[in-house]
């Protein structure tokens, strides 16, 4: 039994044509980083941090009543629950559906403890804080991981989605998502400077 948010890279870009984002040639390194070249140097993107940021902003928009187009996750997610957790999930099923999760074949055992704590047992006073905690937890659990092989279409979709976020440089834990290495630094390393 599994909960499967299903989606495809193909229908990720839903912004107007005016907002077309030029996607550079991307290379995946160590199944963890996306690398591309710019006029001023090379840039590395941490794929987990980037996807986490994308999902977090998407979930927050949805939870705070924004009108952004919500899509299901790019990558399927299967999670396992105890019967008690499954009951808690069922009680909050609407919230998950509202977050854009396509739920398939849900049996007695699926989902994640922290997510349910965010929804059920949380003593956080404000709704805003609860929403933030839920969005952070779901984004972190649902984001692609280091070690996941990405197709070119998935890399391009992730790049485009990250470019549209309001805080692309950091993930929900405040870690760097993007590292830039200037040509001058590289030339120093190679003794060309």
Protein model, in words:
With 193 residues, the chain is of the alpha+beta class. 38% of the residues lie in helices and 10% in strands. The chain is built from seven helices and four strands. Strands 1-2-3-4 form a four-stranded antiparallel sheet. Strand 1 (27-29) and strand 2 form a beta hairpin. The chain is elongated, with a radius of gyration of 18 Å.
Labels describing this entry:
disordered N terminus, elongated, 4 strands, 38% helix, 193 residues, alpha+beta
Topology diagram in text:
Elements: E1 27-29, E2 33-38, E3 41-46, H1 47-63, H2 83-91, H3 93-98, H4 113-119, H5 127-142, H6 152-163, E4 178-182, H7 183-189
Antiparallel strand pairs: 1-2, 2-3, 3-4
Helix pairs in contact: 1-5, 1-6, 4-5
